[in-house]
Every structure is written in C-alpha cells, then in structure tokens.
Amino acid sequence: GERTNLQVEVTNDSGIDWQPSAQSGIYVGNRWVHSDGKSAVELDGRASLEKGLAAGQSTAVELPVTAPWQGGRWLLEIDLVDEGVDWFKERGSKPCLLELNVEVPAVAGV
C-alpha cells in the first residue's frame, strides 16, 4: 500500500505525432500483474502527456505508483494509454515490465 512517484522517460519512436483528442488524452499508466501473468490491479497510476509528443521526441513524467497490499513477487507494467481508446500494448507496442518484490512489514504483537 506504500505510494511513491517514479520518473518515467517516454520516447515516441513512431513516425507520427501523438496528439490528445478532445475526447481523450494520452497517459503513462501502470498495472500490477501477478508473477503468473494474471492482472491484479488494472488501474493504478496515471500521468498525462498533456501536450502529446512529437515523433522522435522524448519527455519525462512522474508516475504515481501504489504497491499492492499483498507481499510477494510482482510485475509492474508501465505502458501508454489513449484514454477511452486502448492501451498501446494492445496495438503492438511493448510495455516496460519491472519485476519487483513487495514486502509487507511485520506487525508488532502479531
């Protein structure tokens, strides 16, 4: 349940500019996935690419992340999402996967 902010650098390696539309926006987002690959927390943190991102350009954003309450090995999947449209991974982009060990502190007297 601990919360932190991650610095994430995003690079637009495509040949087109990413522009937010009036109906949606482009965000860096994360999901928590069990070590067996099953999704556990679909909607954790979001950080907006408010002005979009031109082809070939990079930008850094702060992504708020909240650790799962259950300890153990987890995958933190960081991807882009065109809100209300689709995750970039669903369109062929490769998300960033970080394997993490989440520790739950011992409670005194238990």
How is this structure best described in words?
The chain is mainly beta and 110 residues long. Helix content is 0%, strand content 48%. Strands 2, 3, 4, 6, 7 and 8 form a six-stranded antiparallel β-sheet that branches. A two-stranded antiparallel sheet has the order 1-5. The model has no long low-confidence stretch (mean pLDDT 86).
Give keywords.
two-stranded antiparallel sheet, mainly beta, single chain, 110 residues, six-stranded antiparallel beta sheet
Give a brief rundown of this model.
With 110 residues, the protein is mainly beta. Helix content is 0%, strand content 48%.
Ends distance: 19 Å
Structural class: mainly beta
Radius of gyration: 16 Å
Low-confidence stretches: none
- Give the strand tally: 8
Percent of residues in helical segments? under 10%
Order of helices and strands: EEEEEEEE
Q: Give the overall average pLDDT.
A: 86
Largest sheet: 6 strands, antiparallel
Large-scale geometry: elongated
The proportion of strand residues reads: over 45%
**Treating each run of at least 4 consecutive H or I residues as one helix, how many helices?**
0
What is the fold's blueprint, element by element?
Layout: E1 3-11, E2 26-34, E3 39-41, E4 46-48, E5 58-66, E6 72-82, E7 86-87, E8 96-102
Antiparallel strand pairs: 1-5, 2-3, 2-4, 2-6, 6-7, 6-8
